[in-house]
Design goal:
CATH architecture: Orthogonal Bundle
CATH topology: Arc Repressor Mutant, subunit A
Strand content: 15-25%
CATH superfamily: Winged helix-like DNA-binding domain superfamily/Winged helix DNA-binding domain
Number of helices: 5
Helix content: 25-40%
Strand order of the largest sheet: 1-2-3-4
Length: 140
């Protein structure tokens, strides 16, 4: 059985969903990445990514707001409460672990984009080309 804090945080991220498609389908997919909110699992190329509960909370929060930059402060407040402090080191560590599990090249991520000095953004379908790679500038 999941930790009560984990379940409460997950419920909270579900109730703040801005994407109607995500709310109706209980999943978000972009490229080869699928976030299944009902099963609390993330799949990459059809295989379970094996995320920890905290990693799932982070990626599910981003998946609820695709294309939108979520600030470090906002993410920490949503994930760990208002008393989480201002040090985003733990968030960066979790993000590095998530990227190792879902990205082909964690040093050049295509699903979770870092907005330097601001926060993170989940890719939208238009951000990833048919080949699974981010579109190059000038591609239409």
């Amino acid at each position: 059985m999941a930790d009560p804090r984990f379940r409460a945080a997950l419920r909270h991220t579900r109730t703040t969903a801005e994407s109607e498609e995500v709310a109706l389908s209980a999943s978000y997919s972009v490229g080869d990445l699928v976030i299944d909110y009902k099963k609390m699992r993330v799949y990459i190329r059809g295989t379970d990514a094996g995320l920890t509960p905290n990693e799932f909370l982070i990626i599910s929060l981003l998946g609820k707001h695709p294309g939108r930059v979520l600030t470090y402060k906002m993410m920490m407040r949503e994930l760990w409460g208002p008393s989480s402090g201002i040090d985003n080191k733990i968030l960066r560590v979790h993000m590095a672990n998530i990227r190792r599990k879902i990205e082909e090249n964690p040093n050049d991520p295509k699903y979770i984009i870092t907005e330097v000095g601001v926060g993170y953004r989940m890719a939208e379908q238009g951000d990833i080309g048919a080949s699974g790679a981010p579109p190059r500038k000038g591609d239409s």
